[in-house]
Fold this sequence. Notes:
The structure holds 2 protein chains of 2 kinds. By secondary structure, chain A is α/β, with parallel strands linked by helices. Helices cover 33% and strands 16% of the residues of chain A. Chain A is globular. The longest helix of chain B is centred in the middle third of the chain and has 15 residues, at 23-37.
Amino acid sequence: MAGHTLTFEPADPYHAFLTTCSRPEHGHGPLAGVPIAVKDNISTKGIETTCASKILKGYIPPYDAHVVTLLRKAGAAIAGKTNMDEFGMGTTTENSAFGPTLNPCDTGRVPGGSSGGSAAAIAGGMVRMALGTDTGGSIRCPAAFCGIAGLKPTYGRVSRYGLIAYANSLEQIGSMGKTVSDVATLMGVIAGHDRRDSTSVDRPFAHTPKGEIKGLRIGIPEEYFGPGVDPEVATVVRKAIDRLVELGAVTVPCSIPSMQYALAAYYVTCTSEASSNLARFDGVRYGGPAPDTKKSWHEAYQDVRREGFGPEVRRRIMLGTFALSSGYYGKYYAKAQVARQNVKADFAHIFAGVDVIAGPTMPSIAFRLGEKSDPLSMYLADILTVPANLAGIPAISVPCGKVRGMPVGLQIMGKHFEDERVIDVAHAYEQAVI
Amino acid sequence: MVTEHEVKHIAELADVGIHKEELETFTHQFNAILEYFDTLDLVRGVPAAEDGLVNILREDEIEPSLTQEEVLRNAPAREDGFIKAPRVM
């Protein structure tokens, strides 16, 4: 496959990359010679993979994630590994142990997160396409904040083999690109069955975006335009939806009542899963530094993990440990799972009458660096993106205008396995405004 | 409300440790988040079993895997082809 090399030596003034590969190999195929940036929580054989955490500094994966194998087979050049919030835990990329990424549209602002490096690499013109991961909005948020396109695919459509897990039941690898066509091209390469991921579904993606949306029924949930959403952002998104109506779509007002507790359900679920997943990082088999073998087990591990994990990672591990502890399980985790079923039921109810659901991706424009120093206020920013992860449905963010000079994202959510349709709607919008 | 003492205990249970100077801020933030989680009290019922899901099993067959050298390469402390770990007893 390989054999050719290209030169990739970007200046990177936004700190989008943690590692760059200056002479990456590439082969033949649909992505022949295209440099692709890969988020640093996706395993790349022979290329350092840290999850932007000190605890994995120096870790060189001995194998490729399934999506990376597919990229190489398609002829792509792995251009480097992008910055992120440590282990994907954050909405700004400020939680990286190696320093924040800056938003190419305004370097005083965050690029969003957690796939902020991938979004900045595209918005900054360093690559055309990148891989991100989305657990509660981590592809769509930075796509919206940086003015690019990003798709969180239907859960199961892209293999998670080789993705360093944070919250398995919520996260998906997805494609990010300058345009919706780029997103579709990359999705075509990474989707499909992989027996090494037990949740993988045999639904390959072979679709060229179409701009035809006549008669399309779009649900407009009132919660996506309610309190907490910046009115200027809401206005820009409403105008974008008007544009879709001009193209022949029909809007249908709807409501997602479970939104009142969806965010709490999301944070209880993801922290619970994180507390279990991140137990493997102890500096023994990989990462480090090595625990002091003269100390007792718990003491030695606490030393390694207190120094190796940043405060947000430790906070989430602790919240999950607490939520799963005896006496609190019924109050938190069990309730969160009922809430999750209610979110799924609300979507099923709405999708009985509409083809897609549209609203803003984020309730605001990109924050200033340091603006969201309180964890809870940062969590609240995820309110419009987490429902799609709880339900496992596909959702895309496409740029739809600006507020105070900063990009705004239009979010299109679809039925399970209708990634093609959300891509078509985003493409139709994009074509109409070019 | 959880106390500083409880937050320290949770940090120990989770093997993440906590610095003394972090304890007050962590406890404050922990309580704010838990208070927000109380919105889940609005949820009624117990989780229903997922419909139509069945276990997917595979044959237990030996396949090529990583060599011992590849497995050990990332371990920070090694001895005689083994990984060194803290004592458990």
